[in-house]
Amino acid sequence: MAMSMMKWAATLGAVVLAGAPALHAAQLSGDARSSIPKDVQQVIVVDYRAMQNSPAAMQLKDHVLPPELKRLETALKTSGLKVDQDADTLAFAAFRTGASSNSARILGVAQGQFQTASIMAYFTKNKIKPVMVRNNQVFPMGSSGMSVSFLNQTTMVFGDKEAVKASLDARDGLAPNFLQNGDMMNEMNIVDSRAVWSLLDQKGTQTMMKSVMGSASQLADYNTVQAAFRSSRYTMEFSNGVKFDMTVVLSDSMTAATAATVMKGVMILKKTSGSPLEKSALDETHVDSTGGDLNVGYSSSDSQFASLLTSPLFQQVVK
């Protein structure tokens, strides 16, 4: 689940603001942070208004959006509440539930200036009654099976009933929340000034890196570094072309250097079978290590990246 979320956000991020005249930081408010449960496997935050204003981003999103996120966005748009029109920032969080680390739910958090009076009038007109979770009203979102709760006029949470309940428990202090996740809070402070950013925990990072490495993940050198992955983060910038930066945090500098060597080997192998356009893209991808971090960077002009979107390599990445 986290890997499909990561692929969508990395792909969407590359064009989400293409052609937009201004960039905005996708920052989460205190209410939004406290509504996300602590045990997060991945959180993705995007400037939703800029995404809505970019036809290229919307077309791309329709192709690569994984089912679990498509259900949430569809519910947001078809609920009759028109809250998608007022959303400025949209976050998706995959968080663990219960004792099993394989059990995860997806929560949506939207920030904006929501017309709560009109929304409540809509509920009353359509005889939609809330389920009360303590003092919180939880409303069904049309026929989607999803639910929504407005924390205030600027923040709402949505998802399946259990995800929303877990969110309200976290926000009301009955369960640990994202603010108490020191590692991810520290990582977030590094990236949340960007328009598109994402954080992954250890398990999510290991899953993501195994997919990125492909067949190289079977090599002995890779096996020595897999357990050393601690977390990862990535950001997108669009002020001068397209720029993607990812940092993978490892346990020590030696393993980070080994991981960088393995990834460089993967790139060399891909170059041998890639088209001239793909080889050029790989030439613009830089891999190194600093301290205990593995760093991956890619940059290109808008037109170069637009051409890359139609390449077989890109299609393979977003599968």
Note the main sheet: 12 strands, antiparallel
- Strand proportion, as a percent range, falls in 25-35%
Q: What's the total count of β strands? A: 12
Structural class determined from secondary elements: alpha+beta
Number of domains: 2
| Total of DSSP H or I helical runs spanning 4+ residues | 14
Q: What percent of the residues sit in helical stretches (DSSP H or I)?
A: 40-55%
Biggest sheet strand order reads 4-5-6-7-3-2-1-8-9-10-12-11
Shape: globular
Span of the ends, CA to CA: 13 Å
Keywords: Signal
Walkthrough of the structure:
It contains 14 helices and 12 strands. It folds into 2 domains: 2-184, no CATH class; 201-317, no CATH class. It is an alpha+beta fold. Helices cover 43% and strands 26% of the residues. Helix 1 runs antiparallel to helix 4 (55-64) and helix 10 crosses helix 11 (253-273). The protein is globular, with a radius of gyration of 20 Å. It has a 12-stranded antiparallel beta sheet with strand order 4-5-6-7-3-2-1-8-9-10-12-11, sandwiched between helices.
Sum up the structure in keywords.
alpha+beta, 12 strands, signal, 319 residues
Task: Give a quick precis of the structure.
The protein has helices spanning 2-13, 30-34, 48-52, 55-64, 67-78, 116-125, 161-171, 182-191, 202-213, 220-226, 253-273, 276-283, 302-308, 312-317, and strands at 40-47, 87-96, 104-112, 131-133, 136-140, 147-152, 155-159, 196-200, 229-237, 242-250, 285-290, 293-300. It has 319 residues and is α+β, with helices and mostly antiparallel strands.
Q: Topology, pairings included?
A:
Elements: H1 2-13, H2 30-34, E1 40-47, H3 48-52, H4 55-64, H5 67-78, E2 87-96, E3 104-112, H6 116-125, E4 131-133, E5 136-140, E6 147-152, E7 155-159, H7 161-171, H8 182-191, E8 196-200, H9 202-213, H10 220-226, E9 229-237, E10 242-250, H11 253-273, H12 276-283, E11 285-290, E12 293-300, H13 302-308, H14 312-317
Antiparallel strand pairs: 1-2, 1-8, 2-3, 3-7, 4-5, 5-6, 6-7, 8-9, 9-10, 10-12, 11-12
Helix pairs in contact: 1-4, 10-11
